Amino acid sequence: MFYRAEQDHGLKHNPFKALVSPRPIGWISTRDRQGGFNLAPFSYFNAITDYPPTVVFGCNGPHPEGDTKDTAANARDTGEFVVNMATWELREQMNRSSAHVPRNVDEFKEAGLTAADCELVSAPRVKESPVNLECRLVQVIQLRSSNPKITNNMVVGEVIGIHIDERIIKDGMIDMPTYRPIARLGYMDYTVVEKVFTMDRPD
Ligand SMILES: Cc1cc2nc3c(=O)[nH]c(=O)nc-3n(C[C@H](O)[C@H](O)[C@H](O)COP(=O)(O)O)c2cc1C
């Protein structure tokens, strides 16, 4: 089949997210201007460069109390955010932290998580997550929206500090079956990294 993206696909649900999958989940923590904490998952997320390490996430949609969701607003206001990686053990807490709640609600408390201090930024990190990437905001780029009710913001951040739980390091490498990051598929589906295969580069 072929369909033009802005026309009807004729399927039961929009297949786009299921097609571009799996997508890692950047579980983003921020601090607002008043010092309040915020936490939410983003699966339009990935790493895009090594030198320096850079990440990007898409913060898309309205917020009843402002022009954008709290995460992009806080990153824009403070110039910082933290990416916490979501794992199998933390799947329920990750999901709970996605609830649409008023701006002043602290999702760390709502999800029963511990907000720990960072080394280089004032945003909090999720202590229970085995990987936290402390980020300095590079740019918020507003992308075209084809839905008048939705604002699309691409948030780019440079990773300036990295926390790794020693338990997921084996022989100097990240042990994926211990780490067990989860990723988003389409619909309400997720996957978990449990199987790894290796291929050498051709050159
Ligand atoms: C697994 C998962 C992935 C999500 N990915 C995104 C995403 O990539 N972009 C987005 O705008 N919202 C995404 N959401 C929804 C946000 O997490 C949700 O709107 C959240 O309330 C935003 O919080 P905030 O207003 O505190 O930033 C996702 C939700 C879940 C459960």
Q: How would you describe this structure to a colleague?
A:
This protein is mainly beta and 203 residues long. The protein has a single domain (21-192), classed as Roll (Pnp Oxidase, Chain A). Helix content is 13%, strand content 35%. The chain contains 5 helices and 14 strands. The strands form 4 sheets. It has a 7-stranded antiparallel sheet, covered by helices on one side. A hairpin with an 8-residue loop joins β9 (131-143) and β10 (152-164). The mean pLDDT is 95. Bound molecules: flavin mononucleotide (FMN).
Descriptive keywords:
Pnp Oxidase, Chain A, globular, 14 strands, oxidoreductase activity, acting on the CH-NH group of donors, NAD or NADP as acceptor, binds flavin mononucleotide, mainly beta, 13% helix, 7-stranded antiparallel beta sheet
Topology:
Elements: H1 16-19, E1 23-24, E2 26-31, E3 37-42, E4 45-49, E5 54-60, H2 70-78, E6 80-85, H3 91-96, H4 107-110, E7 115-116, E8 125-126, E9 131-143, E10 152-164, E11 169-170, E12 173-174, H5 176-179, E13 182-184, E14 190-192
Antiparallel strand pairs: 1-13, 2-3, 2-6, 4-5, 5-10, 6-9, 7-8, 9-10, 11-12, 13-14
